[in-house]
Specification:
The chain contains 11 helices and 27 strands. It is an alpha+beta fold. Strands 1-2-3-6-5-4 form a 6-stranded antiparallel beta barrel.
Length: about 500
């Protein structure tokens, strides 16, 4: 009842204002943009992308068969993504052609031992040049032997993959469609404002030329990827991948790439790759065929306010080094686990994401000055940047837990420690450390466990168990105590609150 009354009053105000009985200043002006004109201008440059793979028909590996699931089954989309052909009795999924009564004879049947094309999936893309270059997502064309590009006017072309970058999920495709193809104007994502209207155009669930609208809900959203994302509430679903995010001026500002979901479909939040970053990648793919990035060989994490206070950092910023690749660029420059990198090439490092992007954007072979925070002071190091491999995988090294020594009493931190074995010190490239034989009290509550290695306490390097115990006995237990702890091949700061126990 309350909602109906409110709506009635709104209509009454509008009618009275229109009749001149109320000042127009009291009437609510229309603020909705004209999406129809916007779509009419931009949709001709948005394309549908279908991909296919070739598979030997005699490859009857049962492990490559998709389970026989109905399309409405909640696990259908999950399996369809990883299995490249329908299972026995399976109806073709989205994007696969369905035979019809008027289809005609079609091509001659192939030999049972010949290759066959297996439809893989459907995505979207958009033209950025009149001579046929278009952008899409890497995951749309990944592993495809054939790319079919369909324009809104129903013209179809075979697409040639110019290059693809899995780290940013950007791919560049070329079609031969003449020199007067419709294109989208490139916008400036830095000028986007939170709350600004945007539209997404693509082929969700293979429903081509579908338009959805929303607003920019956040900028520079960190999701752990190499690029910051534009976050919107424009509906994006499977098949929208690679399509454009367009501002109200008709400029493409991003490539729709990811959604936040617990079901596999749109749940109110979607993410787009900023178009300026995508353009940089496209230029490298067009000129070099790949993207070459820098690396310095460190595993990094965030710096919390508590850690910053404990190690004397003026503010909670920088990238905390948890491990250093042996003989890598950072190792050769003198970077150590526990260091916090606060500047790189003269630029402040506010977060670990900042450092990842700065390093990745540095040409291999470049000498760069890095500022690290160590033992309560800043120091300058010169790093010669290496080249990031095209694919990387980080494997942790975990040694066996040390055997528990004879019964001893824990110290004020709840720790029982002993000298780390010489072989372990050599592997870690350190001169001294202690290993945790038992942890309870404050140490146990902080997550320390048997087998951990302690490298420093209160910013003092540990030499042996005797020195460690002396440092503990002299520590002010009413204050947080920072320990640099190594577990496996990673180091991190752990703050103990012994005064709380």
């Amino acid at each position: 009842m309350t909602i109906k009354l409110t709506m009635t009053r709104g209509v009454l105000v509008f009618l009275l204002a229109a009749a001149g009985q109320l000042p127009l200043a009291h009437a609510q002006p229309a603020t909705m943009p004209d999406f129809a004109d916007l779509v009419e201008r931009t949709a001709p440059a948005v394309v549908n992308i279908r991909t296919a793979s070739r598979m030997s028909a005699h490859a009857g590996d049962p492990q490559q068969q998709m389970p026989d699931l109905d399309e409405n089954d909640p696990f259908y989309d999950f399996f369809h993504r990883f299995f490249q052909q329908p299972g026995p009795g399976q109806q073709p999924g989205p994007g696969q052609q369905r035979p019809g009564p008027n289809q005609g004879p079609g091509p001659a049947p192939r030999s049972p031992h010949s290759d066959r094309e297996i439809p893989r999936g459907v995505g979207s893309g958009f033209l950025i040049s009149a001579d046929g270059y278009l952008l899409t997502n890497h995951h749309v064309v990944e592993g495809a032997d054939e790319i079919i590009v369909t324009l809104p006017d129903k013209r179809e072309f075979k697409g040639k993959l110019v290059g693809s970058d899995p780290r940013t999920d950007v791919a560049l495709v070329k079609i031969d469609g003449g020199t007067d193809l419709p294109t989208l104007k490139i916008g400036d994502p830095s000028k986007l404002r939170v709350g600004e209207w945007v539209i997404a155009i693509g082929s969700p669930f293979n429903l081509q030329n579908t338009v959805t609208a929303g607003i920019v809900s956040a900028k520079s959203r960190e999701t752990g990827e190499l690029l910051p994302f534009i976050q919107t509430d424009a509906a994006v679903n499977p098949g929208n991948s690679g399509g454009p995010l367009i501002n109200i001026r008709g400029e493409v500002v991003g490539i729709n790439s990811q959604i936040f979901t617990t079901s596999g479909s749109y749940a109110g939040i979607s993410f787009a790759i900023p178009i300026d970053e995508a353009q940089k990648i496209a230029k490298l793919l067009r000129t070099q065929g790949k993207v070459v990035r820098g690396k310095i060989g460190v595993l990094i994490g965030e710096v919390t306010r508590e850690v910053a206070d404990a190690i004397g950092l003026p503010k909670a910023a920088g990238a905390s080094v948890s491990s250093v690749e042996p003989d890598g660029p950072a190792d050769k420059a003198g970077v150590q686990p526990g260091d916090v990198i606060i500047k790189y090439d003269g630029k402040s490092v506010e977060s670990s994401a900042d450092l990842r992007r700065l390093v990745a954007g540095t040409a291999p072979g470049t000498k760069v000055q890095a500022t690290v925070w160590r033992n309560g002071a800043a120091r300058e190091l010169t790093v010669t940047v290496g080249e990031m491999p095209q694919e990387t995988a980080h494997a942790g090294l975990r040694g066996p837990a040390a055997p528990k020594p004879p019964e001893t009493h824990p110290d004020a931190l709840g720790l029982v420690v002993s000298d780390a074995p010489p072989a372990q010190l050599k592997d870690m490239h350190v001169d001294g450390a202690v290993q945790v034989d038992d942890a309870e009290g404050a140490a146990g509550a902080a997550g320390l466990r048997q087998g951990d290695v302690i490298l420093s306490l209160n910013n003092v390097k540990i030499k042996n168990a005797k020195q460690f115990n002396e440092l503990v006995s002299k520590s002010d237990l009413s204050k947080p105590i920072p320990l640099l702890v190594r577990r496996g091949d990673q180091s991190q700061w752990v703050i103990l609150h012994a005064g709380d126990n």
